[in-house]
Amino acid sequence: MSDADKGVLLEVITPREMFYSGQVELVVVPTTEGEEGFMAHHVWCVKLLAEKGRVKIREVGAKNLKLIDIKGGHVDIKDRFVVYTDEAVWTEE
Prior knowledge:
Elements: H1 3-6, E1 8-13, E2 18-31, E3 34-38, E4 45-48, E5 53-59, E6 66-71, E7 74-77, E8 81-84, E9 87-91
Parallel strand pairs: 1-8
Antiparallel strand pairs: 1-2, 2-3, 2-5, 4-7, 5-6, 6-9, 7-8
């Protein structure tokens, strides 16, 4: 199985740009109900994101997480995962 088969396409989109696009094994998003994690083949859903929070990404084959601070929006979980947010900024722990 190739690395691409192990993950799912994640896109993080702001009103100004496609902030991130890549194959991920895991994404954890800050929803209005708390942090929720998603992996490939998750049941389809849409979740409202918290006003402020941190998206955690584990890219396919990576050991470390990448972190993005966001402001509001929603995540669309289908055959690809799309985070629509007002702002996105790379950050570190």
